[in-house]
Amino acid sequence: MTAQEEKSFLDWLTSNGTFLCPDMALHSFEADGMGRGLIATKDIQKDTLLFSLPRNLILTTSTSNLHTLIRDEDWNQLQGWCPLILSMMYERRRGTLDTFKDLNWKPYFDLLPPPNSFNSLMYWNQAELEELEGTTIVNKIGKDEAEESWREQVWPLVLKYSDEDKEMEKWYGLDSFHYCGSLVLSRSFHVDSKPEGEGKNQDDEGDSDGEDDEEEEEREDVADVAMVPMADILNAKSQCDNARLFYEPLTLNMHSTSFIPAGSQIWNTYADPPNSDLLRRYGHVDDVNLNDEVELGLEDVVEYFVGQGKERDDTEERAEWLCEMGLDDTFSFPLQSPTPECPLPMELLSAIRTFLLSPEDFEKYQKKEEPPKPKLEKQVLEAAKAIVLERRKGYKTSIEEDESLLSNTGTTLPLRQRQAIVVRLSEKRILSTALRWIEGEIEGGKEKAKSGEGKKRKAESGKERDGKKGKKSAAE
Questions:
Q1: For the residues 7-21, what does the mean pLDDT come to?
Q2: Angstrom distance (rounded) from CA 65 to CA 51
Q3: Treating both helix axes as pointing N-terminal to C-terminal, what angle do 298-307 and 312-324 enclose, rounded to 10 degrees?
Q4: What separation in angstroms does the CA of 95 have from each of 89, 108, 316, 428, 443?
């Protein structure tokens, strides 16, 4: 990116009413493994206004005029993020033409990462993805689903409304769809299209960062998903955020949330997702991420009990009932458990108890419409141990092998391989910690049982002796 393009972007912002704090500047952080960001050129005090962006500069389905060129019945057939992605492809191409004199986002698009620079999982090849074997994150990439959306929704609409143009494939083809979709996934914010009230921050209104995109597409109105120039330039790092975006009726304002010394990077927050999500959405990982977690699916529990001889139909019926009762079908093992006294997900324990119920007892809980409460019973712990062990077997390398790969200073690992190792190593450590805790609880239960049995035997022995003495005394 040239200095002239950076200047054009800043000039575009200020000429359209954006306030920019003079004590910060665009800066390349490529030496730190990041792209462009913002740096403090002077000390910045807490609660300083870093920039104020007029709402008409954010790129949404309503600020782009594409929707006015397409009939409502056609536009409304677009699902998920497709309306925004198509609007971005349209505005990206429009910026290359000289026939439009109204608001043009070309300076913004010029500053965005080029298509060949993305490192998110959408752009990994099969050999690179195999380094993530054992994690669940590969199943969340959604590349096949995205390409189906382009084939069935976007491309037919493009052909319907465009003239014969050799450049249609360049601007609206599958590669462009993946590029703009990746921009939405990694850089968009959730900005209420009909703002009410004042002073909301990005935690109140939310941003698309840190959310599961499939769930988000189902839940939110695509009109509320926005590309926010300048705000999306800020990088983020776990536990480092020092700035936050606040939503006003007419502007979006970025404020510092702590003192920022001169020469320091200005960090936004991505809602502190685990490394697996950072890699999927943004293409990077933190060497130390306290928000790391491992996911174990309800289907893993089902398969365990089927393997133990339970009938599949009955087991799947119970799993379906648990979901109807509000139980999540995914159990998270966080690196930092909110309940250190029991790092196992409570819903996992409840699910295991459900599958252990006799048919009669399961029927009783069905009538109550309430799953069993989580309990650390021996059978539950032994099942949890087996399920976690099986989950850990999914990784093709051991903790020791991964630690050796990362510590081998004589070898420079390819970036994507190193990132995959960081993700899978953290997950295996979390599972191993959970296993040690389970094994400790099982052994502790055995010791308590032995102690209780010993006391019981001693008491019974004493009773026998007392009885014999009594009889003897009576005979005497």
A1: 96
A2: 26
A3: 150
A4: 10, 10, 53, 47, 68
